[in-house]
Specification:
The complex is a heterodimer of chains A (1075) and B (952).
Chain A (H helix, E strand, L loop, with lengths): L5 E6 L5 H13 L9 E5 L2 H20 L6 H10 L3 H17 L6 E3 H11 L11 E3 L2 H14 L5 H16 L6 H9 L5 H15 L1 H35 L16 H5 L32 H55 L2 E3 H14 L2 H8 L5 E4 L7 H16 L4 E5 L13 H12 L4 E6 L1 E2 L4 H26 L5 H6 L6 E2 L1 H4 L6 E8 L9 H19 L7 E5 L2 H17 L9 E2 L10 H14 L4 H14 L6 H4 L6 H19 L2 H11 L9 H17 L4 H11 L14 E5 H4 L4 E6 L14 E8 L4 E8 L10 H23 L2 E11 L5 H4 L3 H11 L13 E2 L4 E4 L40 H9 L3 H10 L3 H14 L4 H15 L2 H8 L3 E2 L5 E2 L5 E2 L3 E4 L3 E8 L5 H18 L2 E8 L4 E5 L1
Parallel strand pairs in A: 1-7, 1-8, 2-3, 2-6, 4-5, 6-7, 9-10, 11-18, 12-14, 12-15, 13-14, 15-18, 25-26
Antiparallel strand pairs in A: 11-20, 16-17, 19-20, 21-24, 22-23, 24-25, 26-27
Chain B lengths: L3 H12 L6 E5 L2 H14 L4 E2 L2 E4 H9 L6 H15 L6 H20 L4 H4 L6 H5 L7 H12 L7 H26 L5 H10 L10 E5 L6 H14 L2 E3 L4 H4 L8 H7 L4 H4 L7 H4 L3 E7 L4 H12 L9 E4 L6 H6 L8 E8 L4 H12 L3 E4 L2 E5 H8 L2 H20 L4 E3 H5 L3 H6 L8 H15 L4 H23 L7 H12 L3 E5 L6 E4 L11 E4 L19 H6 L5 H18 L2 E7 L12 H9 L5 E4 L13 E2 L3 H7 L16 H9 L1 H10 L13 H23 L3 E2 L3 H21 L12 H24 L2 E18 L2 E17 L2 E8 L6 E2 L2 H4 L9 H16 L7 E7 L13 E2 L7 E2 L7 H16 L5 E2 L13 H4 L2
Parallel strand pairs in B: 1-3, 1-4, 4-5, 6-15, 6-16, 7-13, 7-14, 8-13, 14-15, 21-23, 22-24
Antiparallel strand pairs in B: 8-12, 9-10, 10-11, 17-26, 18-19, 19-20, 20-21, 24-25
Helix pairs in contact in B: 1-2, 3-10, 4-5, 4-9, 5-10, 10-11, 18-19, 19-20, 23-24, 30-31, 32-33, 33-34
Classes of the chains: A alpha/beta (1075), B alpha/beta (952).
The structure holds iron/sulfur cluster.
Iron/sulfur cluster binds next to helix 31 and helix 38 of chain B.
């Protein structure tokens, strides 16, 4: 049968995804030179886009000269096209040129940029502004929105009420009073897809302010009810107890008896005490109520039967109710404010006519729903027949919804499309990534009969040992994760986890199978004694070992390029970078190198130079702020190794050696503020001689770049920049070219799609289901009795497990575990040759809680997993003494010859260019003279400009109009000028210069051999004579006469005619004949 | 060096010695300048110059008219639009659409398309198919393809599209006629008029020569052809075989057409020059990690150039004008002249920023009973701007200071006007009519005040001209009223596009220019920055409301044509270059990754020369600032002396409890604040942060009981007194408190807004609660409120015993059932338990109880000031975060591990231990051997005002 048009590649790590994509792309592109115009290849990141493009071009360049028939790619292409090698070469050549010269249509792009393209094409239909800006920095927008909302507090009584109640509540719970912060943290939701999914319902609910009130009262009343109930129970319980002459401490457990919880009933904050897992079934078994030795067993049992048992039985259900209400109340105030947030947001967007990046998806969804594919293509001006979508597991629901109609349209015409992705590598759920799409949803939506599934199960990346290890590990790990979820989180069905990993097993690639070196996997579990088990201890140990590890690796013959640190949190990366850079600067004469490179963890604000600059700018912005002033000079001294002492800090003192510098700086202060931001910065750098030290260049440039970017997208004023910097400074890092030979530090998220010879995971530990962050999930809530049905923003926390939201909670747990599983999968599959991880070692652990830690799972599996019919049994390689898992050897050291590449030099010295550049001046502009003319309403020069430009009066008025439309004159001034002109023209002599007979040579003038020009304002060649006129403004001078004379001689000799010369003074129209 | 213009000049001089009889037409004025320059060098005796024109001049001259500026046209367009569109949007929303429509109309006319047919409508398609005959089959196909996409109608967006599409032709029609009425026309209109009436042009006496054109619009093409065929005009092509012969090379797109044209064809040179292939130019590409690094690289490239180099032959092409100044900054000294030709966006300049800020300030003025009040935030940034500082800096600084210290949220117009004339000019609430005159006077005033700042002045002038246009237009439209928001938005939209055109003359020195400015010019050394996709060539979304295929069908330019034009400007540069440096950046920007330009890719594949690519690397190193240690040299020691009590029994300074707390937190912090004297920055506080809240609470409580005291003439409170207090006096007290804190005039009823209002209402609940608590403990006798208490305290130092001064304000002292309560209100959630007295002075102790240390300190002070007192002194703590708890207890408790807490009934019982601890603390302070060092506990730094210094 002909293969189906819709192909889904399930591509496990290292299975040559790009290779496959390229092949598929070429198959389609090489059909005809223009075919590429109809292919849209969608990648996840800009970087991926680049690589994809380069890869395609590279292969085409190759194919045009050389076809390798026994190479997988080429054989497939040859087969697909059904052509011979020669023909293929030709086609490759053609397509290559076609692409290079129609590059705009070489459509390999990220989802975002494709979506934007479409949205732009529909701007009008979507009621967007014609030139909307795309806003990436949504937090910044949110800030402004929140500020505006809070500002409005007095105009909106509801808002006011909410804010007050909210503040009070916050304070009563001893929380921060900073309303804004809290609104923002929840407010971020409005950009999230999860929110937008429910968007319409929510907006509906919020439209009526009363609704929120209603909900609030509802909660208050329900809570009161529970409190009353519990108080009654408490009373009853105590009655029963007393009747039986008992103390709560008589019950089992004594002074710490469960029974004391009866007394805790009805407390305002927590009216229902929680029963421990063991106590849960007390209500149903009186035996647990007394200890064997107890004297009053009889009384206790009676008490139990008189109702204590039943009362205790009510604890859990009540607790459920209570937790549910609590969960809802948590965000209810802020929720009420959402209405205002949304309103303001729409306004801000409108005022600054921008489109939020997060809106693009939503819009496109609407566009593709609202229109037929052909129309869309017509509008966009590009017709796509084939879609190749990469990293599909990270596609969001909206994105898929947007693509679907287009894909279906293409399928309908029998065109090939394909999706590539790997469920196991979906780690962008927090960005809306929907792995379920790839898992099965797409298949069910498109219909399996259209779909051809292909599984890429050979790993071309890693050496045998790495693959063997991962095969073994991920055979087990999914199962044990699934168990935890079902046991500790009571998930009904967690099978999705193992389903996602059913195809995890990989084959070793033929190239690697018989390579000398097999690869190495090493995990060290560091035993941090229980006593010092606080955070930090482990981290310290790890950091102290890093340099050693690096040196060891270099001894084994690995270059810096080969090494990558994978971390979970940026802060970890930061710590690594700091440690290594510090170590390097402390041990300059080691023959080892420690250069690191990271786009994520090397923050600009780490550098002394940057601190100096920022302080400087802050000081300029607010000269009262002496802290900044001192900071600036302090860091300058640091950079120059100058003494740090009282002299330097004391407000009223300045060390002698910088006195002059300081004076110079203060002298310049004012002028700095006059300069465009970029300028000011350059000057500042010069003033502080920051580039002189020759240090921290990358940071210096990095900061310049920050200013550069700011000015290009914003109003370029200093205060604005400083605010922006406050926000951005913890995001901005140094940028280093990819090629540079240094160790990479990157988060697992960023490592996706990359590979490294050696993967180091120094902080291999994390909480799997982390409820401490209070992430928000949206969940419907219904109370039929009270006619209540709303979508509620819940903060994720353990309490939800005992509430009506427990399913939502369990579901979250499943996904969280899957996330972590994927995370570790991605991390461990980056390695080509070596994996080396460090984790803390746990001696004993509590079943339910401890299993929520990644490191524990590893420890368990590595130390105790035995089976090995297929593949290796891990525990054999675990040495329980040293607590080290070690599998495989180090490679034979190969000494690589040093390639020391000389990068081009850069110039850092600063030049003040102002003398170099001059600006052209015009009549009545804002130059000193110009302004002066304005004040005096003196348009002489302007008239002059007009006259010299013009041949005829009509020319004059044409140019006058032009001036007017340029804005150089307003109506009134224009009138004045024409008045002045009329005056001049009223003189027949003057007029004759403009309409008399004769050939006018005015604009032309005369060229002299030295290249200089002579341009009298009028030269009129008549039959016999030539007339020369020069217009003047201001006083009459001797020179004028001379000059005209000069002209006359020139013209005489050129025209062979007798010449008449005139001077005309434009202010009063006086005409002087020159003899 | 090969130069197209020079060669052409030579050829012309030879063929037409009578230059004065020539009209030379060039693509732009700049090319003209260079051309005459060459002429000048070539002649040997004075000669008449030829007339030098741009093609534009030619058209406008024949049209006898020039087009007005776009703004005017868009206004005109809008007028017509309003009459045609059922519900027209406001002008500011229309503005950019107008721009787009105008551009479309321009194209329609420039390319002489039949508007009626172009804008035809779905149902008309059939009927006109027949008379679409003037179009080729393929064109018709395109049109049909487009309309076919409407197969199933009635879809939301299609209707929208059609609705709008429908009015475009009527709009086009009506617009033109209304322009005709008012005697105006947009350029395309003029061009078309001329092109359609070529027949009526009288043969010019002079010889026309067209030089260096590449892409013609239809009208241009028609006119030039007419001149060639009818008037024997000459035309010179600036072309190279490299892209002309290669039929796929977009750079040659137009030439290839012209070459087979019956009229143009013959005018092409017999053999096409092959400079690009023959000249083996050295071509070098560089990748820089950051955009700004390009400038550094350019700098070093120029540095290498030989000193007595002829700079005119070197050009730096800047596709992104923003790079202009960074480049200028890194120019090496050996460059004495620079010639910049490009537009620089005015929006990047502070003077513009100032204007926008001034305008936006209007949003933040509120007028209350006739008094205009200015909101502090926008005001602050305005005041700190140089333009106000330079006028009257003393006033500005003093005002800023006042705002901070007095925490002023609104500043009155009156106060601001004390700054002088300029301030009076700026700070007034404006009605929308006043906006225009306001701004233009403001601009002139500003310009007047700018000293020797030619650049700034011209920036301003650009804005001024634009403003003039706006004003003139608005004044002509009686129809649309300007409300402020509308104006601000429009202002932003219009002015952010304004550019200051640098037009370098004379033509000497290093040449710096934008891409298009380089047309027809030739250089030996070419340096191009931003060789990135979507920069060079620029990103290809040509804004048009006419769909792609329709444009193509009617021969309107589409992306392909744009690309071709840029490609040409690029490859042209190679015709004479011997040395080419192409710099691109890998920096991702606004989500766009730095992708190297297609031209680099093309050359790489097709030029067959090995192109080296170098990667710029900036060394990454960090300076480790060591930890800061301030030794107690005698300098520092002198400063400490101010705390020491001298003969007259006084000390110049005293230790407040907070000072001591600071010292315990971090010695260095204490040093900075109390010895180095570096005040932490004060800011106008509006947020409900703990300190604001606390302050206001203090004031309010003071006012509340003060008030009572004054009304009842007694300071003894009975339970009965409270209901009245709670009911009638809390709110006023708070109002008073808030006003005191924000220095608002007491009786002026300024409405509290924003956070202030919230503070007040939140506080309401607190004071009420506080009163409940007091009511329970009533009756009690108020002894003092917010009163300072001093003491002297003896310690041992290296130079013997000394006494130091202690002082503290006790929020409230009262006597209840024979116990003196030393009350402190705390807005925080401070704990009341502490392990031991020692722990209060233990800087290592992570949960050292500051509050306890402080309230006990009050005990010490009180006893010192009332030696006779024998009553128990009870430290008391009303910490707001706890008072709502059911079991609230305001008294301190000592709780040793695993022991029942003990309530502190009487300070005096602990005095010895406490004083011992205090002594240790102070002796540490005066010990010369212990320097001031940074704390180890970084949590302390989190809210420290000096963290910038310490970099923590
Ligand atoms: S930042 Fe930390 S170390 Fe520096 S002064 Fe403040 S508290 Fe002390």
């Amino acid at each position: 049968m002909k293969n189906r048009p819709f192909i889904i590649y399930k591509s496990s790590a290292g299975s040559g995804k790009t290779y496959t994509l390229t092949t598929e792309y070429l198959k389609l592109a090489l059909i005809s030179p223009k075919s590429f115009r109809n292919i849209l290849a969608v990648t996840f990141t800009n970087k991926a886009t680049q690589e994809m493009k380069e890869r395609i071009l590279k292969e085409l360049k190759r194919l045009k000269t050389e076809v390798r028939p026994n190479d997988k790619m080429d054989t497939e292409i040859l087969a697909a096209l059904g052509v011979g090698e020669e023909e293929l070469k030709v086609r490759a050549a053609h397509s290559l040129t076609a692409i290079l010269h129609d590059y705009g249509r070489f459509s390999v792009s990220t989802i975002d940029s494709f979506f934007q393209k479409v949205v732009r094409a529909f701007a009008r239909e979507m009621d967007l502004n014609a030139k909307f800006e795309l806003e990436m920095d949504q937090d910044d927008v949110l800030d402004r929105v929140v500020d505006r909302v809070v500002g409005k507090v007095m105009e909106d009584e509801y808002l006011h009420k909410w804010l007050v109640d909210y503040a009070v509540e916050q304070i009563q719970n001893g929380k921060s009073w900073d309303i804004r912060k809290n609104i923002k943290s929840l407010g971020r939701q409005i950009f999230q897809e999860d929110f937008k999914k429910y968007g319409s319902e929510i907006k509906e609910f919020l439209k009526e302010k009363e609704n929120v009130d209603f909900l609030q009262t509802y909660l208050r009343e329900r809570k009161m009810e529970i409190i009353e109930i519990t108080l009654q129970l408490k009373e009853e319980a105590n009655k029963i107890r007393i009747n039986n002459g008992l103390l709560w401490t008589d019950f089992s457990g004594g002074s710490r008896s469960f029974a004391l919880k009866f007394d805790k009933l009805g407390e305002k904050r927590q009216p229902v005490p929680e029963l421990s897992p063991t106590q849960i079934n007390f209500p149903y078994s009186e035996e647990c109520w007394y200890s064997k030795s107890c004297m009053q067993i009889h009384e206790i049992v009676t008490a139990y039967h008189q109702g204590l048992g039943k009362i205790l039985a009510q604890f859990d259900p009540l607790l459920f109710k209570w937790n549910t209400l609590e969960a809802i109340s948590k965000n209810i105030f802020v929720y009420g404010i959402f209405r205002n947030l949304l309103e303001e947001l729409t306004q801000v967007k409108d005022e600054e006519n921008m489109l939020l990046i997060s809106d693009a998806n939503e819009f496109l969804k609407e566009i593709t729903r609202e229109n037929d594919a052909p129309f869309i293509y017509e509008k966009v001006g590009n017709q796509y027949k084939n879609y190749l979508i990469d990293e599909f597991q990270d596609t969001s629901g909206f994105q898929w919804a947007s693509f679907k109609p287009l894909l279906e349209n293409s399928l309908a015409q029998g065109n090939t499309n394909l999706l590539v992705g790997d469920v196991k590598q979906s780690i962008y759920r927090w960005r809306g990534g929907e792995m379920k799409l790839l898992l099965d949803q797409v298949e069910s939506e498109i219909g399996s009969h259209n779909i051809e599934q292909r599984n890429l199960d050979t790993n071309f990346r890693s050496l045998p040992n790495i693959i063997a290890f991962n095969n073994a590990l991920f055979k087990k790990l999914p199962q044990s994760f699934e168990n935890v979820v079902t046991q500790s989180y009571h998930a009904e069905d967690a099978s999705v986890i193992s389903k996602a990993y059913q195809d995890v097993f990989q084959h070793v690639s033929p190239h690697k199978i018989d390579s000398e070196y097999k690869g190495k996997v090493r995990f060290e579990f560091i035993d941090v004694k229980e006593s010092e088990e606080e955070e930090g201890k482990f981290d310290e140990q790890v950091l102290s070992r890093l340099p050693q590890m690096v040196m060891e690796l270099q001894d084994k013959g690995y270059g810096l390029k080969d090494i990558a640190y994978l971390v979970r949190r940026k802060s970890e990366g930061e710590a690594i970078a700091d440690t290594l850079m510090a170590f390097a600067s402390e041990n300059p004469d080691l023959e080892y190198r420690f250069d690191v490179l990271s786009d994520e963890s090397m923050y600009l604000n780490k550098s002394a130079s940057v601190k100096a600059m920022v302080a400087g700018l802050k000081y300029l912005n607010d000269p009262e702020d002496k802290v900044q002033f001192k900071t600036m000079w302090y860091y300058r001294s640091v950079l120059r190794n100058e003494p740090i002492n009282h002299e330097l800090f004391a407000l009223d003192r300045i060390p002698i050696h910088i006195k002059e510098k300081v004076n110079a700086f203060q002298a310049k202060e004012k002028s700095l503020l006059q300069l465009p931001l970029m300028e000011a910065l350059e000057e500042l750098i010069a003033e502080l001689d920051l580039q002189e030290t020759g240090m921290e260049k990358a940071y210096l440039s990095g900061f310049k770049e920050a200013v550069f970017d700011f000015t290009s997208n914003n109003r370029a004023d200093l205060p604005g920049f400083l605010e922006w910097w406050e926000e951005i400074q913890n995001k901005r890092t140094v940028k280093i070219p990819e090629g540079h030979d240094a160790m990479r530090i990157l988060t697992i998220h960023k490592s996706k799609g990359l590979q490294f010879k050696v993967v180091l995971m120094p902080f291999l530990k994390w909480t799997i289901f982390d409820t401490s962050k209070g992430n928000v999930i949206w969940s419907p809530f219904e109370d039929k009795g009270k006619g209540l049905n709303v979508i509620i923003p819940l903060n994720l926390n353990a309490k939800l497990a005992k509430s009506d939201f427990k399913e939502t909670y369990a579901e979250e747990a499943i996904m969280a575990y899957l996330d972590s599983l994927n995370m570790i999968y991605v991390a461990l599959t980056r390695a080509e040759e070596v994996i080396w991880g460090l984790s803390p070692y746990k001696l004993e652990f509590k079943k339910d809680t401890s299993l929520n830690y990644m490191e524990i799972h590893l420890q368990l599996l590595l130390s105790s997993s035995l089976d090995g019919q297929d593949g290796l049994s891990l525990s054999e390689y675990f040495d329980s003494e040293s607590k080290v898992f070690d599998f495989g050897e180090w490679p034979e050291k190969v000494v690589k010859e040093k390639v020391n590449y000389q990068a081009p030099e850069l110039r850092w010295e600063y030049q003040n260019w102002t003398e170099l550049l001059e600006v052209k001046q015009y009549a009545v502009d804002f130059s000193k003279e110009g302004l002066d003319q304005r004040q005096k309403r003196n348009f002489g020069l302007l008239v002059h400009e007009l006259l010299e430009k013009s041949r005829t009066p009509s020319d004059i008025s044409m140019h006058l109009e032009a001036f007017y439309f340029e804005g150089r004159l307003d109506e009134a001034e224009k009138k004045e000028v024409s008045k002045q002109l009329d005056l001049l023209f009223s003189n027949p002599v003057f007029a004759s210069w403009f309409e008399g007979e004769g050939q006018l040579m005015a604009e032309q003038g005369i060229l002299l051999p030295d290249g200089s020009q002579k341009r009298p304002d009028r030269i009129i060649l008549k039959e016999k004579e030539a007339i020369i006129v020069d217009f003047k403004t201001g006083e009459a001078y001797e020179e004028h006469q001379k000059q005209v004379k000069e002209y006359m001689d020139l013209v005489a000799s050129l025209s062979q005619r007798s010449t008449k010369g005139y001077l005309c003074y434009l202010e009063d129209g006086k005409i002087v004949e020159v003899e | 060096m090969h130069s197209f213009l020079r060669n052409t000049a030579e050829e012309i001089i030879q063929t037409y010695p009578e230059l004065q009889n020539l009209v030379i037409v060039l693509p732009n004025r700049r090319a003209g300048l260079f051309f005459t320059k060459h002429l000048g060098i070539l002649i040997d005796k004075p000669t008449w110059m030829p007339e030098i024109k741009t093609i534009e001049d030619v058209f406008y001259q024949y049209a006898g008219q020039r087009p007005p500026d776009d703004l005017t046209l868009i206004f005109e367009l809008y007028k017509v639009y309003q009459t045609l569109h059922p519900e027209p949007e406001t002008f500011d929303r229309f503005y950019f659409w107008g721009e787009m429509i105008l551009k479309d109309f321009n194209d329609v006319d420039q390319f002489m398309a039949e508007a009626k047919k172009l804008y035809l409508y779905l149902y008309e398609i059939k009927e006109i198919e027949s008379d679409l005959s003037f179009l080729t089959e393929q064109q018709i196909a395109l049109i049909r393809q487009f309309w076919d996409s409407f197969k199933n109608q009635g879809r939301g967006h299609q209707d929208k599209f059609l609705k709008f599409w429908q009015i475009l032709y009527p709009l086009y029609d009506a617009f033109k006629s209304s322009l005709n009425v008012s005697g105006m026309a947009y350029s395309g209109m003029l061009y078309r008029k001329v092109a359609e009436q070529l027949g009526q042009i009288t043969p010019p006496e002079k010889q026309y020569v067209f030089i260096g054109f590449n892409a013609f619009t239809k009208t241009e093409e028609k006119l030039i052809k007419h001149f060639i065929s009818e008037f024997g005009a000459k035309i010179f092509w600036d072309v190279d075989a490299y892209y002309l012969e290669d039929r796929i090379q977009e750079a040659g797109l137009f030439f290839r057409e012209y070459r087979i044209d019956s009229i143009f064809g013959p005018t092409f040179p017999k053999e096409i020059p092959e400079h690009i292939v023959n000249r083996k130019a050295t071509i070098q590409t560089y990748a820089t990690p950051l955009k700004t690094n390009q400038a550094n690289l350019v700098g070093s490239l120029l540095e290498k150039v030989d000193k007595n180099e002829n700079w005119e032959e070197t050009v730096i092409i800047l596709p992104d004008e923003q790079l202009l100044f960074p480049v200028l900054h890194t120019l090496p000294e050996n460059i004495d002249k620079v010639n910049v030709t490009m537009g620089y966006p005015v929006k990047n300049t502070p003077v513009y920023a100032f204007l926008e800020a001034v305008l936006e300030m209007q949003r933040y003025i509120k007028v209350e009973n006739g008094i205009a009040l200015f909101y502090h935030q926008p005001l602050k940034s305005l005041l700190s701007s140089i333009y106000l500082q330079s006028v009257n800096s003393t006033f500005v600084l003093e005002l800023l200071k006042e705002m901070k210290e007095q925490n002023q949220i609104y500043i009155s117009q009156k106060r601001l006007h004390e700054g002088g004339a300029f301030f009076e000019l700026i700070f007034r609430p404006l009605s929308s009519e006043q906006l225009f005159p306001y701004l233009s006077t403001l601009m002139e005033e500003l310009a007047n005040r700018l000293g020797e700042e030619p650049l700034q002045r011209s920036y301003l002038y650009q804005c001024f001209k634009q403003l003039n246009r706006l004003r003139e237009n608005f004044e002509k439209q009686d129809g649309l009223s300007v409300d402020r928001e509308f104006f601000i938005r429009l202002f932003r939209q219009v002015f952010r596009e304004v550019k200051l055109p640098f037009e370098g003359e004379p033509l000497q020195g290093l040449q710096i220019m934008g891409v298009l400015e380089s047309r027809n010019l030739d250089f030996k050394r070419v340096i191009i920055c931003n060789m990135n996709e979507s920069s060079f060539p620029p990103s290809g979304n040509l804004n048009s409301l006419i769909p792609y295929n329709i444009r193509r069908a009617f021969g309107l330019p589409v992306q392909e044509q744009n690309d071709a034009i840029y490609a040409y400007t690029f490859y042209r540069l190679l015709q004479s270059a011997e040395e080419v440096h192409m710099i691109y950046t890998t920096a991702a920007d606004q989500g766009k990754a730095g992708e190297k330009s297609r031209y680099i890719q093309q050359m790489d594949v097709e030029m067959g020369l090995d192109m080296k690519e170098e990667v710029v690397y900036v060394p990454v190193d960090l300076k480790e600032p060591g930890s800061i240690v301030i030794e107690k040299d005698e300098q520092v020691f002198k400063l400490l002396q101010k705390y020491v009590v001298n003969q007259d029994g006084k000390s110049r300074a005293t230790f407040s409890p907070s000072a001591l707390s600071v010292f315990l937190d971090c010695r260095f912090k204490f040093y900075l604040r109390y010895l180095a004297g570096i005040k932490e920055k004060e800011e106008v506080k509006e947020e409900i942060d703990a300190s604001v809240f606390g302050n206001i609470a203090h004031y309010s409580m003071e006012f509340l009981y003060q008030g009572f005291w004054e009304r009842k003439k007694r300071s003894f409170l009975e339970k009965e007194d409270f209901p009245d207090l709670q009911k009638n006096w809390v709110f006023p007290a708070i109002e008073k408190g808030v006003r005191k804190f924000y220095h608002l005039d007491e009786n002026a009823d300024t409405k509290l807004s924003g956070q202030m209002a919230i503070v007040r209402d939140v506080l309401q609940k607190y004071i009420q609660k506080l009163l409940e608590i007091d009511e329970e403990s009533a009756p009690f006798q108020i002894i003092s409120m917010e009163k300072a208490h001093q003491a002297k305290f003896q310690i041992d130092t290296v130079n013997g015993k000394i006494e130091v001064g202690l002082e503290g304000f006790i929020d409230r002292v009262d006597e209840q059932l024979g116990t003196i309560r030393l009350i402190d209100y705390k807005s925080g959630g401070d704990k009341k338990t502490f392990v031991s007295i020692e722990s209060l002075f233990d800087r290592k102790d992570k949960n050292r109880n500051k509050a306890a240390m402080q309230t006990m300190y009050y005990g010490l002070l009180y006893q010192a000031t009332h030696p006779e007192n024998s009553k128990p002194l009870k430290p008391t703590l009303f910490n707001f975060k706890e008072i709502f708890q059911d079991d609230f207890n305001p008294y301190l408790q000592q709780k040793e591990p695993r022991a029942q807490p003990v309530e502190i009934e009487n300070y005096r019982e602990y005095a010895l231990l406490y004083e011992y601890g205090l002594k240790g603390l102070l002796e540490d302070m005066f010990d010369p051997k212990i320097p001031f060092t940074q704390t180890e506990d970084r949590d302390k730094c989190r809210y420290c005002a000096y963290m910038e210094i310490c970099g923590r």
